[in-house]
Design brief:
By secondary structure, this protein is mainly α. 55% of the residues lie in helices and 0% in strands. The protein contains 3 helices and no strands. The longest helix is centred in the middle third of the chain and has 26 residues. The two termini are 14 Å apart.
Length: 101
């Protein structure tokens, strides 16, 4: 789904026909399975990848927290913060937004 843009007309919900089709297939599958409409289906591989990245993020945060207690140099802090940002991977691609009713 795309964020709203300041354009004329109806706001775009999908980046293209392929994304629109995947969303339809997911809605159809959840309906057929009798699942609530707010259920989000993800593959086991995607879920495992997300859990791995969240664990890495937690470890990076703990490293920065430990370093702050030790009075780090500016260079050490910059390096740790860069590692922290890198550990997030592309978590921003995983945002789930509510469907318009």
């Amino acid at each position: 789904m795309l964020p709203e843009q300041g354009s004329v007309g109806r706001p775009r919900l999908y980046c293209g026909q392929a994304c629109r089709q995947r969303a339809y297939e997911q809605r159809s599958a959840t309906q057929k399975a009798g699942l609530p409409g707010d259920v989000v289906l993800v593959s086991r591989a995607d879920l495992d990848g997300l859990q791995d990245r969240l664990y890495q993020l937690r470890c990076a945060l703990e490293d920065v927290q430990t370093m702050l207690a030790e009075k780090p140099t500016k260079a050490e802090l910059e390096r740790s913060l860069a590692d922290l940002v890198r550990s997030t991977g592309r978590l921003d691609r995983l945002w789930v937004t509510e469907r318009s009713s």
